[in-house]
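Q: Here's a chain of 275 amino acids. Please give me its 3D structure as tokens.
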Amino acid sequence: MQDYLAFHFQVAAEFQDVIIAGLYDLGFESFVEEDEKLQAFISQSDWNQIDQEAFKWFCSNHGLSYQIIVHNPKDWNAIWEANFQPIVLANILRIRAPFHSADPSYSDELIIAPKMAFGTGHHATTALILEWMTGETFNGLSVLDFGCGTGILGIYARKKGCRNLVMIDIEPQAVENAFEHCELNHVHADAILEGSAEVIPAQLFDIIFANITRNVLEELLPKLRSHCAENGKLIISGFLKQDELFMISCLEKNQFSVKSTFQKEDWIAILADVK
């Protein structure tokens, strides 16, 4: 497995969401937030391909300075274990690591060991979708978790009764992590695929999750729409409140009808139905 670069930024807590959104768009994968500090992680290979001028402009525009530390995969395990605490969503779902004890007082539980994949439930975008899921039933539904990261959304849908589950991510580490999480949570995915929209199976889905960046969402909405079943639903996140109206416009242009929006901190999720 390849090394990862950790960029250490000094960022006031109230600005961290904006910085994370910008770095996520540039290609950074995972983040550790502290009071006045932010760590952003990216693989060595992705860093070699990133738009360096865009990164320099972003840092200059936001007055950011940073230090870079190279981590091997074992280093990452130590980092997330030190920062990962169980969380509870909607007083129903508890998300824990394998080294935490179970708590039977909560009806739903997910076990997550994220390594370098995005999606532990701690970040607002993932939490928004999971909170919505706690009140939904998935019995008999087909689900696509596009940009699955750790697989947390798809795995929870399977635990809540979905009959068919496909998970896709462009990062090989995420695909590997999603396989591992299916085993940890004793669920089965019908397919876990590496790639982007080109690897979506030739089928229709009742529910599609897409917790990815704004720019990628804008580009791929037509493709995702083509894989929505009649009366299907799409729930998207990965963008800030300031992008809400733009994303609603994109959804409407692609024959979706917005049903609900959810906000946590500065982040937004949107639930839409097929028109």
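Q: Can you summarize the key feature?
A: The mean pLDDT is 90.
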